Prior knowledge:
The complex is a heterodimer.
Chain A: E1 2-6, E2 9-11, E3 19-20, E4 23-24, E5 31-33, H1 35-51, E6 54-60, H2 66-75, E7 79-83, H3 93-106, E8 111-115, H4 126-134, E9 138-149, E10 152-158, E11 162-169, E12 172-176, H5 188-196, E13 200-202, E14 221-228, E15 236-238, H6 242-255
Parallel strand pairs in A: 1-6, 1-8, 6-7, 7-13, 8-12, 9-12
Antiparallel strand pairs in A: 2-5, 3-4, 9-10, 10-11
Helix pairs in contact in A: 2-5, 3-4
Chain B: E1 3-7, E2 10-11, E3 14-15, H1 17-28, E4 32-39, H2 46-51, E5 56-61, H3 70-84, E6 88-92, H4 95-108, E7 111-116, E8 118-122, E9 125-132, E10 137-143, E11 148-152, E12 169-171, E13 181-188, E14 201-205, H5 212-224, E15 228-231, H6 233-237, E16 258-262, H7 268-271, E17 279-284, E18 297-300, H8 303-318
Helix pairs in contact in B: 3-4, 5-8
Bound molecules: flavin-adenine dinucleotide and adenosine monophosphate.
Amino acid sequence: MKILTTAKKVVDVELTIHVENGAIVKDGLQYVINAWDENAVEACVQLKEKNGVDTTLVSLGSGDNTDMIRKCYAMGIDNAIHIDDPALENADSFVFAKVLQKVYEAGDYDLIITGKQAQDTDSGQTGIILAEFLGLPCVSNVIAIEVIDDGKIKVSRLGDLGTEILEVTLPAVITVSDGINEPRLPAMRGIMMAKKKKIQVMDLEALGTSYDEVGGGALKSEVAAFMESEKRQGGQKFEGDAAEITANVVGLLVNEAKVF
Amino acid sequence: MAKVLVIADIKQGELKGSTAELLSKARAIGAETAVVAIGSNIESLAKDLADAGSDTQYIADDESLALFSAGPYASCVVDAARQSNANLIWFGFSEGGKAMAPRVAAQLEAACATEITDVVLEADQITVTRPAIANKVIQKVKINTERLVAVVRAGAFEAAEGLSGTRNVVKLTAPEADLKAVIKELISDAGGEIDLADADIVISVGRGARDQSGVDLVKDLAHDLSAGFGSSRAMVDSGLMAHNKQVGQTGKIVAPALYMAIGISGAIQHLAGMNGSKTILAVNKDPEAPIFNVADYGIVGDLFEVVPILKEEINKIRG
Ligand SMILES: Cc1cc2nc3c(=O)[nH]c(=O)nc-3n(C[C@H](O)[C@H](O)[C@H](O)COP(=O)(O)OP(=O)(O)OC[C@H]3O[C@@H](n4cnc5c(N)ncnc54)[C@H](O)[C@@H]3O)c2cc1C
Ligand SMILES: Nc1ncnc2c1ncn2[C@@H]1O[C@H](COP(=O)(O)O)[C@@H](O)[C@H]1O
């Protein structure tokens, strides 16, 4: 069985992000693997350990992705592809999904595992759109994957009424939630081996497609401007005798906030 | 003229609040309104759907639709979108909505935007506002297609008073089942609990509660106040709280009148799920905890001491 998994390099959300003139100030930003993609990679590696599957990672974007990919290698991924093309700079989810479609079609994969959302877009669309493009079944927000046989997997997803358990025919697309696993810290041996591994880097043309074919020239949506989010102001903080301050706060909830 | 199709949020046969909120917004922008309801034994909802402010009600009522299945459900939405010729297709915030919206958009070749907090129509240009990067920035997104499929963030729109619509039911034929992703079982969340999405008060417990005794203490307060009972991820990871209780960027997004964060540090991923709440109360023993930067009222103290007092004081007031 062959699994394709996706990883996006995203801005580190733990750091402060400044906006100026409608754009994010790039100076001082740091980039990391998208947290949910780390879960996707971990899920792949666990399937590899349990079921002996072959794992390929793909990342789309322009610029250097080496550190991120090496990290995934160190976690246990077998092969990695980086589609490096300036045309992907302002891409929307449909464009990314189109490029992923091309990557999928160039291989012979049984399963695609993506993160449920990218931390920079918070969109949660790419994997689901990819499945639509490919005409494959798709389950999103997945917290468990189990291989039944070569043609079937069992997955659990968090739905509105509880945990839904589904049987899915392969090939399929799964998007994972962070609840699926705790990504491993790569061991030293893995880190050393990762340094030696090759990364297959190619542009859209090498992938057999073009800017126009993936919809780069006809984005369905584009970010016109970024703004600082409104910061909530902290209010009143009380320290001291628990009974006294608690009674005080309850009084404020009643008289000031009028919630009771 | 704008035509809005709202996907009714139905849980266990009941219409959820988001439906009226979205229809109110549609009315406020002067749009024609339609609603699509999907499920089994839901025909009796037609009146509620009209009363919520819709002019047309598309209803897909079939036994095969009893359990959520993204494929067939999305097909019903696409069908209603085509029949109504809606250019704005809105889901309320739910896991189902998040699973369906990109499918519907792909099938309609429409743009897709999730977690939107506003939508503006000027001439033929649609623009939406939405938070991104764990709420650290706000994006203004220009929609380049005629149609937009969107998931509206919890608490973004308010339900107007005294809306009414006209009853005009259109029945949809049930689509074929998805034989490639078959739901085998639904492990239902503990029945009878208050839905986090709809609760006026949400009380969440964090790692500060330590163990089951701490969880029970906070749960007891939630029970007393008929509040939704939520959690930080740390408590989900430790197995003390169920996955579906997680509030945050990757869990539930809530915007209640009162949110209580008990023993929660206030990591940005948690804040992303609750900072739209009207009033926030935090209890934390660390005066420097980041949760105090967003809380309207902060109590610095040991939750094991504070929560029982909180309960007693509130009960006094509520009689
Ligand atoms: C991709 C990603 C997504 C995430 N999504 C979410 C999400 O959706 N929701 C979420 O919540 N987190 C999420 N997280 C995790 C988040 O970063 C934090 O780790 C988590 O919110 C911490 O939970 P906590 O506040 O309960 O625990 P901690 O950070 O450990 O805080 C515990 C707090 O309790 C206080 N405390 C301890 N003892 C007491 C006491 N006796 N009385 C009072 N206070 C006490 C401490 O001072 C401390 O502030 C996500 C992380 C990542 C990377
Ligand atoms: N540029 C990219 N490279 C690799 N994977 C991506 C890229 N963009 C999106 N994805 C995948 O799609 C998921 C959802 O992204 P989004 O729709 O932007 O929230 C991410 O978690 C990734 O797994």
